[in-house]
## 1
Amino acid sequence: MSPTLAAVLLIGIFVLAAALIWLGLGLSRRAKRLEDAEPPPAAEGRGPTAVAAPPAAPPPVAPPAPRLRDRLGKTRAALARSLGTLTGRRTVDDEAWDSVEEALLVADVGVATTSRLLDELRARASTEHVQEPEQLVALLRAQIVEDLAGRDRSLHHAADGPTVWLFVGVNGTGKTTTIAKLAQREIDAGRPALMAAADTFRAAAADQLAHWAERVGADVVRGQEGADPGSIVFDAVDAAGGRGAGVVLVDTAGRMHTKVNLMEELKKIHRIAERRPGALQEVLLVIDATTGQNGLTQARQFADAVGVTGVVLTKLDGTAKGGVILGIVDQHKIPVRFIGLGERVEDLREFDATSFVEALFSKPNGETLAA
Ligand SMILES: Nc1nc2c(ncn2[C@@H]2O[C@H](COP(=O)(O)OP(=O)(O)OP(=O)(O)O)[C@@H](O)[C@H]2O)c(=O)[nH]1
Ligand SMILES: [Mg+2]
């Protein structure tokens, strides 16, 4: 090979190598550019331009409304324990009747009402030839519904002008809480509510009421601590018309029904509340079910003092003494209008005899003790 040919070949190889290197570098830069421009892999089901969103908080789930029979669990269990032994028997003998009596007494129906109920049951069981314990339980159930049903439950409103409802009761029964619960119902029904803080006895009482008023969207009229409660009622009823309130709910201080001066003060509040003819539509006695038979004595004293038109029986969710409701209705002929089943605004129910008794006579699995 001549030296010239060798030089040409060497230059050719060199040029080819340079071209290959240049091509390789170009391709790798292009690949890099493409890589940089590529969007992040799209999440499944989204469009190519979707941007990954931060994980969304799950929507708030309202807790399921507790069933009546769950809220009445303690009284229901008390009844079921005694009546359960009854349904295990073969005939309606003396021991079967003892079980019925025990069930009623354990549920705090009270001696007088229990004995009246038993007399009626015996008469019915005999005319209806009841022989099976199951039939006896069914008869008891029907008898209780009959005793509790048929009374006017609705709260009344004045024909014209603002309505006044007065709330009375001993200390801590749930008057203020019940006012909040009922105010919420009124407001939900399109009737603006005004709360009158006529409990001027405790410094915190008006604050507690005002707090509830704010929560449920009601108006409030209050005075100084120690002010005359009658004057608060007077001002509230006066203000109601101007402020467009449909109903004035008067909160009073808890008072011992045995204290004469306190009951006299209540009579005065009552007189002022009925100053405008037709305005005072309800005097509601709030009774704490956990006090059981004591509620009956309270009912008598308050009914004598201010003519109670209805009872709100509270705290049925925490007691085995729910049977007291029968005693109140039987002994005083005062209708139970509402029942309290907890501390929240929504924990108030219009009393309905059928569903109440159904709940009491149901087993935890939902079956009834006797159909
Ligand atoms: N579990 C339960 N608690 C309730 C119910 N009603 C009221 N309470 C509670 O009972 C307590 C007393 O309630 P209040 O409404 O302040 O009672 P009050 O009758 O106004 O009390 P005084 O003004 O002191 O006489 C509070 O802790 C309430 O949350 C109810 O139906 N169930
Ligand atoms: Mg109160």
## 2
Amino acid sequence: MTSTSLANQTIAVFGASSGIGLAVARGARALGARVIAIGRDRARLAAAAGAHTLEIAACDIADEAQVAALLRDIGTLNHVVVTAGGVVGASPLTALDFDAARDAIATKLHGSLLVAKHAAPRLAPGGSIGFTTGVLGRKITANTVVKTVINAGLEAAVRQLARELAPLRVYGVSPGPVDTANWGPLSADDRRARAAKLASTLPVGFMASADDTAQAYLFAMQARALTGTIIDLDSGAQVGG
Ligand SMILES: NC(=O)c1ccc[n+]([C@@H]2O[C@H](COP(=O)([O-])OP(=O)(O)OC[C@H]3O[C@@H](n4cnc5c(N)ncnc54)[C@H](OP(=O)(O)O)[C@@H]3O)[C@@H](O)[C@H]2O)c1
């Protein structure tokens, strides 16, 4: 067996106050890692960390000074994961709110690159950088141009940086629909209806949970030969629906 254990590894997860990032943070902690869970709001992080003995740190991923200072404070790292991303509504291009689009790009696309920029010099040998893309990066769907360009851009960055930052490893995880706060504010009924509708289009026939999706990051951090690639852990969304 030549995979690398996560026991006693230091892992920073940007976007860990909820959803997929929180599931990655908890999963890595359960495997014995020291985990720093990062988001913008310390109170939210503290509530999310609960009894999982996660360390927490507040940082806006879109702010380079904050990202640089946090990673300087953390020091040497074994793995960094970015799942931070805001809610991005569907819109035809002709009605697109460009201020909102700029914010979304600054958070997820620029923010992921900022983390990679400042984490790379601090990653120990064997270290990895994980980005989060999404099925809409390749699956062309009406009115989702902002999500498409962000996710497609990050997928291109994975391939580019896997070469540029080698021997550090760089990978992406592309989720399909996962019922999290990333769907935006919905009533419980609307959320249930949306989840049921999406699940019926997915080859697996159900909606993946954040924990299901976290498996891809936990695998990627431990798979020492994995780099420059995207793991489509998407319930089959790329081929179904
Ligand atoms: N859920 C889906 O259906 C789905 C599908 C495909 C791809 N994805 C992608 O998966 C990733 C994770 O989303 P999720 O579903 O887990 O959503 P989520 O539950 O809303 O989690 C997003 C996380 O990002 C953090 N965050 C947002 N803006 C930030 C900023 N500027 N700086 C630092 N942290 C920030 C949030 O914390 P604070 O707000 O407390 O800062 C939160 O912890 C996103 O990139 C999303 O695009 C999700």
